[in-house]
Structures are given as structure tokens and as C-alpha cells.
């Protein structure tokens, strides 16, 4: 899941660290505690897609951002099935530090053939000429438009979205019911969110805990009709009235006492706050499921879509892709392996085992049929989700934005927007 895009807690229990290695390393995509070996049917599906694979000869190297034994095994099983069918060989290895290993590989001219790239880093690697833009060779696959946007640079789709996660409103159903709330009270507007959060704030419990970065607060900007940059990320737009209104909404929630940042309730992130009973609601993504299963198995919870703002619905999406090195001597074999992963069956199987959602629209209904109704709100956001800011050179600007957001409620939203606008414009040259 992304180190920034899906910013995870600064403080995690050992159980969560073990279950969420990928969340922390890249894109916030948690892993379930179930056996992560692909099903026999899914593995067979991988083989069926490779009938046209180049016959033998290629020795493919693959680097993935997970060291979790079970999740790594799932990928290796699919890779082995492809290798057997195609007559090629493939070596899947976990990254200890993906960015560092890729940088070293690019510099030495021997990067892995295939590797995961977070959406926030795609333009940086693409601009440096490190990636082979193969997306036009997967035009028959119905990726979600927002995911295509996340991996498009300079008009080219560089790589296939692997899967994705969205933000939703997670609530503790026991505290919900104890407060006399029902399904009819699930907030669908900003005003309703304030009302419900106020009702739930009592007896040492804060109604809503919100992560203190743009990866959570940014959802309020989107719901107000604003965002940090324009759609093609060539100009800063965070100083717009709409973006400022979104930040102001968070400020007002915090000032009311019905909401708080995690630190204010002695928690490392929203999941910890709700898991330990310090919060009744939080805003988190699919990775929450894995964390809850690992650290808070007795927690009763459900997720709803985020309430609408003045501009309607809005959420943030976090994703990675299967990238191919431009320096690879095995491009066609690499592409064939990646294509083998995009059957509906394999996508659903991996999504459920890894705690994410399939990146292809054709698998949507099959995926929904496999998850409880209490978790389905996350997939609803696929139709309107906003991807991360990923323009080259913007990482320091985004980190500074997080620092400014953490000064709420004391710092004026307009000042946060002004400083970020200036910082980003200096990078973008506008």
C-alpha cells in the first residue's frame, strides 16, 4: 500500500506490523491472516492465460514489496504456474527497501525485470526513463479510470494497476448501538457526520478520529470540490475556496471536541484508536481489516461510504502497479507474466487474500459477492476516488503539507493552503 498515499500509523503493535508489511512499505494494502496460497482454480487460471507465452529461455526476476511469508507464497505460486506453462523461469523476491533497491538497480543497469511501483512514484521513475510503457498492450483490460490516471505519465499508460484501496468511514458497531444509533443514522452529509460524532463523544470516547495527513484530510478537500493540484498536476490549486473549505471542515470538527487527531487520543493511527475503544469512528482504507483481525479480533465494526460534502461524494484511492524495467532484456516474457494475473478469478482471489480490491471493473461483482456487506462501501468509492499527487519533485511539498495539517486546529486553513500553494508552484514552475 503507499508509504505516503496510504500513510499508516507511526505506532503499531507487533501484530499489525506483521500483518501489514505492505501497507507500511508501499500502498496501504493489508494482508488477511488466511492461507495466502492462491486457490487451485486461480492458479489454473494463470496457466490458461499463458498459452501464447514465449516458449522457454527467459529468466525473469520479480521484486515485490512484501516479506510476509504467506502473501509472498501466493505470488510465487502464480509465478510458478506461469513459468511451467510458458517454459520460462521466474524468481520472485521480497524487497527489504524497494526504493533503495530499485535506485541501485537502475544506477547499475541491472534492475529487476518486474517490480511494484506506487502511484506516488510513477512519474519520478517514468521521467528518469526507468520504466517500459507497456500499457497500450493491455488495452483490452477494463481497469478503473482513476487507476489508469494514476499510472499515466506524459500521455502514456506505463503499467498495469495491481489492485487498490479506498477510504471509508469505519465505525465501532457496539459503541454505535450503545449510543442508540441505528442504520438510519449512518451519516451521509457533513452536518450528519458532526451530529453523529457529537452523539458518540462521551465516557472517554471521541466520536471521530481523523488521520493527521493529506491522505485523510484530503478526502474533505475532494468532497468540497477542491484538490491540491489540477487534474494533470501541472498547477497548484490548493489555495482555491473549495480546497480551503475542506480543510476548514476538519478544523471545525476538531474544534468541536467531537473529533481528534490520533495523537490527541494517545494513538498512532485511526485504526488503533477505534480498536482500543478510544474512538467510535475513524476514516481508513481496506488495510483496516487486516489490522483489526491481527490486533483487535473482538472488535465489531463496519464501513460506510464517506459522507458527501458540498460537491458530493469523495474519497482517496491508493494503488500500485506491476512495472517493467526499460533496461529489461525480458520485456515480452515480463508482459506475458503480468497479463496472466488479470483474469477475474485471480484478481478476486488475490484481492481477498491481500485485503485489497481488484483493479479491473469486470471483477467487481464477483468480488462484491465474496465480501460481507459491512465491507462493501470501500468498493463503491472506485467510481469517484481521487488519486495521489505524484508530480516529479512534489514529495517534499507533500511532507510539508502534512506538517502544516498537523497544526490544526490552531493554524488557519487559508495559511496552510497559501504556504503549500507557494511551495508547490516553485516545484511545478507556475
Which keywords apply here?
2 domains, single chain, D-Maltodextrin-Binding Protein, domain 2, 15% strand, disordered N terminus, 7-stranded mixed beta sheet, 430 residues, globular
Number of domains: 2
Tally of helical runs: 19
The secondary-structure class comes to alpha/beta
Mean residue pLDDT = 89
CATH superfamily of the largest domain: Periplasmic binding protein-like II
CATH class of the largest domain: Alpha Beta
CATH topology of the largest domain: D-Maltodextrin-Binding Protein, domain 2
Low-confidence stretches: 1-54
- Chain oligomer state: single chain
Instruction: Assign the CATH architecture of the largest domain.
Output: 3-Layer(aba) Sandwich
Percent helix range: 40-55%
Number of strands: 14
Q: Using the alpha-carbon principal axes, give the shape.
A: globular
Instruction: Report, as a whole number of angstroms, the end-to-end distance.
Output: 31 Å
Query: Radius of gyration, rounded?
Result: 21 Å
What is the percentage of strand-forming residues?
Answer: 5-15%
Characterize the biggest β-sheet. 7 strands, mixed
Describe the structure.
41% of the residues lie in helices and 15% in strands. With 430 residues, the protein is α/β, with parallel strands linked by helices. The chain folds into two domains: 14-166 and 318-386, 3-Layer(aba) Sandwich (D-Maltodextrin-Binding Protein, domain 2), CATH 3.40.190.10; 168-315 and 390-428, D-Maltodextrin-Binding Protein, domain 2, CATH 3.40.190. Helix 10 (214-223) packs across helix 11 (241-256).
